[in-house]
Design goal:
This protein is α+β, with helices and mostly antiparallel strands and 204 residues long. It contains six helices and six strands; from the N terminus they run E-H-H-H-H-E-E-H-E-E-H-E. The protein is elongated. Keywords: Membrane, Transmembrane, Transmembrane helix.
């Protein structure tokens, strides 16, 4: 069986300043915990540094009339640019550049989940494993759950797969979903996440 629970919306307080500060705090936390794409940036920096070093060596040794010929530019100058091999290399380089561009523009998957706050100067977060453990612990505390098999964390949803000794667990899923949702509402992850529970009976 499958059950759902949605995030609890905060009550209207009538204080516009507090709502604005909360939105600013959410944006600040999301920006602070955004993935920096360290591996991709390091790889791109190494490639650019290597290309710059090779170019500098060729230029300096050429000025000294002792070219090292690390780059076979004589062969490159004789290449027909409409040749299939040349077009394939340029297409590969263009694709590599596009990958680096997209990696810099698109947000990566961060290991930290920002938590909602009321002060933009105070940013809090929890790692994805910690949030999964919190959801699993809340599900295990719910009546009728014998074991949590797996917790999947999505951007807008938490999926909990659990087992129960009850052979006909009708209605138990809603209780498990409510227990997990209550734990999430206390942690206040950003963006808020709904809960989906898949409960199955234990095998004899």
């Amino acid at each position: 069986m499958t059950a759902h629970a949605g995030p609890v919306r905060p009550a209207r307080t009538g204080h516009a300043d507090r709502a604005v500060r909360a939105r600013k705090a959410d944006r600040a936390a999301r920006h602070a915990f955004r993935s920096r794409r360290v591996r991709m940036a390091t790889f791109a920096a190494v490639l650019l540094t290597a290309a710059a070093v090779l170019t500098a060596i060729e230029v300096i040794t050429g000025l000294l009339d002792r070219p090292w010929h690390l780059i076979p530019y004589e062969r490159v100058s004789d290449v027909a640019w409409n040749d299939a091999k040349a077009l394939g290399i340029t297409a590969a380089l263009a694709a590599l550049g596009l990958i680096f561009l997209l990696a810099g523009l698109l947000p990566g998957r961060t290991r930290m989940v920002p938590l909602q706050g009321d002060d933009p100067a105070v940013m809090m977060g929890v790692n994805r494993r910690g949030l999964k453990r919190a959801a699993a612990a809340a599900a295990e505390d719910a009546p009728g759950v014998s074991r949590v098999r797996k917790v999947k964390l999505r951007r807008r949803r938490v999926k909990v797969h659990a087992e129960t000794p009850v052979h006909r667990p009708a209605g138990l899923g809603q209780g498990v979903a409510a227990s997990v949702q209550e734990r999430l509402d206390r942690l206040r992850p950003f963006p808020p996440r709904s809960v989906k529970v898949r409960l199955r009976a234990e095998k004899d």
